Structure to design on (127 residues):
């Protein structure tokens, strides 16, 4: 195993497990954070599940990137960039947490692309 493959493996595992942790965390956060509006408990979480569905889609895109790094990583980056528009991070609505969250999604998507690039172009880079 050459040095390029080892580096690609590091990027791959950081991207996979980092995105898994992030998407599971934000899914459960969005599921539980609005549950108190519907009375709390399991019933409130089930009634609030429509707010957590977009974050479940992020997890599904992770599964896509797990198999096809180029396609999934590109989609994850596009989602991260579109979240800047969705969260409207400008002026008085700027929240540092949301900004960092968006950057983290984009960074992990880039890690998928870097891993793909290192695997497919390893012979050309180390001649």
């Amino acid at each position: 195993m050459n040095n390029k493959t080892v580096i690609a493996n590091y990027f791959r595992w950081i991207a996979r497990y980092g995105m898994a942790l992030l998407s599971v965390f934000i899914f459960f956060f969005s599921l539980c954070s609005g549950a108190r509006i519907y009375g709390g408990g399991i019933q409130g979480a089930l009634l609030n599940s429509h707010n957590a569905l977009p974050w479940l889609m992020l997890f599904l895109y992770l599964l896509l990137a797990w198999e096809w790094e180029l396609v999934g990583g590109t989609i994850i980056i596009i989602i991260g960039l579109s979240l800047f528009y969705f969260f409207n991070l400008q002026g008085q609505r700027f929240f540092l947490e949301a900004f960092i969250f968006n950057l983290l999604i984009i960074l992990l998507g880039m890690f998928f692309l870097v891993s793909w690039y290192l695997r497919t172009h390893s012979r050309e880079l180390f001649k």
The chain is about 85% helix and 0% strand.
